[in-house]
């Protein structure tokens, strides 16, 4: 006989049940573990109030597993509440640390910025190391302002942490190697942290747990992105505006097998906004990207990427003296016409070269897609001034085209 479904109370019924008086004797008979489980259904603020009822409830609060609620510290009042919770409610699982408020700061860490330390010497210092008591922390968000100054090793020792976000921390100093203190880390999200240093390869100690790595605008992060190629769970990799290097042509069939989103900096050959030194380099890079997209069966993986010809390239030349003449086509875009993928050169005004197709032409009888044909026609209609050119013309050819254009 199947078990009966629990009756779900309506909002009025739930409110009425909450207002009913409970026999104190019944509550007193509840086991500490049961009380802790009940407390676990409430946000930390409510549990902190309920623990004041009696010693039994205070003891139960200490073993309560606090649910994933975003308790944040952005003022002195919240800091004091957090400091109390480190002993009264130590099983907090999610915490957000922001600036402590006007004329307050966290105690300077190791190797602080001396100028900032002098400017804030009269501020009231608060001990940030107290959060080390939250041993069951799963998510930690550190963000904003000048509250942290220097290195804080105690912030990198939470054995159960799964998600770490650090953003807009101007004087917070740390190294990627310190992440080894988070053996279960799945998601790393770092933005605008100028004092973050380290080699991206140091994340390999977390290769069996890492799923998402986002490190944005951290210029002191270096290394070769290929050092993460064999992370079996990695689905997101964003290293934009870092100093990471490498070459997309080095990606093999068994590298980055589960990647769903990727942004590589322009310091990587073939990365986002990469500037080619030679026009002849482009086909091999585009082919490597195509093979990667085809293997992952995701044609959107690089859809909004673009590349450029470097002004330092020997292939570069200045535009025509007549401003009405189309500019030189030194930008590379991917082109998708439904079932077909290719790439083409263009200028910033929308004048395109011919498409260099990466996919073979579909069989006109069996595989032709009428919607694809229309899309392809619309793309080809955009090719005018550079018709017949699959790559940027030489300087001599370009000037000849412009001369003819001006005469017309």
Structure commentary:
The structure is a single chain. By secondary structure, the protein is α/β, with parallel strands linked by helices. Helix content is 24%, strand content 18%. The chain has an eight-stranded parallel sheet. The protein has a five-stranded mixed sheet with strand order 15-16-17-18-19. Helix 8 (282-296) links the parallel strand 15 (275-276) and strand 16 (306-309). The protein is elongated, with a radius of gyration of 30 Å. It starts with 10 loop residues before the first helix and ends with a helix.
Observed structural traits:
408 residues, alpha/beta, eight-stranded parallel beta sheet, five-stranded mixed beta sheet, 10 helices, 19 strands, elongated, disordered N terminus
Spatial separation of the terminal alpha carbons: 89 Å
The value of Rg in angstroms is 30 Å
Silhouette = elongated
The number of distinct β-strands equals 19
The computed structural class is alpha/beta
In the sheet with the most strands, the strands line up as 1-2-5-7-9-11-13-14
Amount of helix: 10-25%
- The oligomeric state is single chain
Q: Averaging pLDDT over every residue, what do you get? A: 87
Approximate strand percentage: 15-25%
Largest sheet: 8 strands, parallel
Write the layout of secondary structure elements.
Blueprint: H1 11-19, H2 24-29, H3 32-39, H4 44-50, H5 55-63, E1 71-73, H6 76-88, E2 94-97, E3 104-106, H7 114-119, E4 124-126, E5 139-143, E6 150-151, E7 163-167, E8 172-175, E9 187-191, E10 196-199, E11 212-216, E12 221-222, E13 236-238, E14 261-263, E15 275-276, H8 282-296, E16 306-309, E17 331-337, E18 340-346, E19 356-357, H9 370-380, H10 395-407
Parallel strand pairs: 1-2, 2-5, 3-4, 5-7, 6-8, 7-9, 8-10, 9-11, 10-12, 11-13, 13-14, 15-16
Antiparallel strand pairs: 16-17, 17-18, 18-19
Helix pairs in contact: 3-5
